[in-house]
Amino acid sequence: MLSIALPKGRLGDKVYNMMTAAGYECPDYADNDRKLIVESPDAGMRYLLVKPSDVAVYVEHAAADIGIVGKDILMENEPDIYELLDLGIGKCRMCVAGPVGFEYDQEKTLRVATKYVNVAKKHFMEENRDIEIIKLNGSIELGPILGLTDVIVDIVETGTTIKENDLEIVEAFKDISARLIANKASFKFKNKEITQMTEKLREIVRGDNA
Predict the structure, then answer these.
(1) CA 123, CA 110: separation in Å to the nearest integer?
(2) Rounded-to-integer distance, Cα 178 and Cα 14, Å
(3) pTM for the whole thing?
(4) How many Cα atoms sit within 13 Å of 188 on the Cβ side?
């Protein structure tokens, strides 16, 4: 039986629909309100319903064979896993955003609010900018509004929240989407099952993009 770590919420539901289309339906999933593990012996699947930011942890440490996680989390944490497939869902962009009309000043240290500390450091290092990072876990847009920081680094889907807070995208530097990942040992010892699933999902992704 394969164990798959699914992110709770809307993204997890989208992934489950793809899994169902690929032949890995679990009848208990739709009726589940509180269970964190649901199984489908007929499909040979065990679904673990976890917090999105924890998916890669479960996979890296072999609590799950495979999982679905946003590229933003992989970029930030760099877990020791295999990235198998871009599922083409949960699309957004990693962006720098600031007050309307904001321009970089190379003479000043750029103050950045973000929960993606490693992503921000790497991005601005590549641009040779001096930065000071202030880590915030929520309401990041308040950073520039209150003068705490100059800009923010965050994922942006529609941009509505950015606009509603009188900010604008300064630069979008990475496309983000959900990725299928695998534990390295599981990929070796359950290669047939994981590869078969990956190929079925790949066909669905191709069909959706056709």
Answers:
(1) 13
(2) 10
(3) 0.91
(4) 4
pLDDT in tens, 8-23: 888 988 998 999 999 9
Give the helix, strand, coil percentages of the chain, each rounded to 5: 35, 30, 35
**Considering the chain, what percentage of its residues have pLDDT values greater than 70?**
97
Residue 195 host element (H or E): helix 191-209
CA 36/CA 40 separation, integer angstroms: 14
> Would you tell me how many other CB atoms lie within 10 Å of the CB of residue 35?
12
Q: Count the neighbouring beta carbons within 10 Å of the beta carbon of residue 119.
A: 21
Residue with tokens 């962009």: 93
Q: What is the DSSP-derived secondary structure letter of residue 125?
A: H
Instruction: Using alpha carbons, select from 10, 22, 12 the residue that is nearest to residue 194.
Output: 22
For residue 156 the two structure tokens come to 């942006």
Give Cα 9 distance to the centre of its chain: 13
